[in-house]
UniProtKB/TrEMBL annotation:
It is a multi-pass membrane protein. GO terms for cellular component: plasma membrane. The keyword Cell inner membrane does not apply. This is YitT family protein. Keywords: Cell membrane, Membrane, Transmembrane, Transmembrane helix. InterPro entries: UPF0750_membrane, YitT. It is found in: Cell membrane. It comes from Paenibacillus macerans. The chain crosses the membrane at residues 36-58, 95-116, 137-159, 165-184. Its main location: membrane.
Length: 207
């Protein structure tokens, strides 16, 4: 499930988002913003953002979750590289960006949801969204949307307005699909497990 979710994410990000000029949210969007405003290397920015979140997840969620996340992240990178280097498929929807946003939202939502459902995450921003969702009681998809929308709104400083608006549309669709995929067949969110010595009030959210 995790492998298929990572593959679907890579397929959608390359063939839908990249090929049609849709923007990025999450930590990728923050890394691009750092490049634009401060000329920071995006790769180093991504590492700086991911490492503290992964360490926090190791402490709160355990080694298995972090290893699953590393596996899904590596799988995503490998599949994306394969798409970029060898895929002959071109999905040109620049003349129909609403359809591109719809497809992106559906495919990335299912992909990210499958990875989360299997017990991992596709990156540090996904981990952060999941932790904040479990702490606050906000549905996981809504938290994804909130974080991506904030980044994309700031990114309007340097990204094309039209493509960014349709990216926000894709993010809104993906948020709904993630929530449905993660919680389909389950009544509620799994409470966040923390060590006994850490006094954090656990909350759950309705599916």
């Amino acid at each position: 499930m995790m492998l298929f979710g990572s593959c679907l994410l890579a397929f959608a990000y390359y063939h839908i988002n990249f090929q049609n000029g849709l923007s990025e949210g999450g930590f990728v969007g923050l890394a691009l913003l750092g490049k634009y405003l401060l000329n920071l290397p995006p790769a180093l920015t991504m590492i700086a953002l991911d490492v503290p979140i992964v360490l926090l997840a190791w402490f709160l969620k355990g080694r298995k979750f972090v290893l699953n996340t590393l596996f899904s992240s590596l799988a995503f990178s490998a599949f994306y590289e394969l798409c970029e280097q060898f895929s002959p498929l071109v999905i040109d929807l620049r003349a129909n960006l609403p359809l591109a946003a719809l497809l992106s939202g559906l495919l990335t939502g299912i992909g990210a949801g499958l990875v989360l459902r299997a017990g991992g995450a596709s990156g540090g921003d996904d981990i952060l969204s999941m932790l904040l969702s479990q702490w606050s009681g906000i549905k996981i998809g809504a938290m994804f949307v909130l974080m991506d929308a904030i980044v994309l709104t700031i990114s309007l400083l340097y990204l094309p307005f039209k493509e960014t608006l349709f990216t926000i549309m894709a993010v809104l669709i993906a948020g709904k699909v993630i929530t449905w995929t993660v919680h389909y067949g389950h009544g509620q969110l799994t409470p966040l497990r923390v060590p006994h010595r850490v006094k954090v009030k656990e909350k759950t959210a309705r599916a």
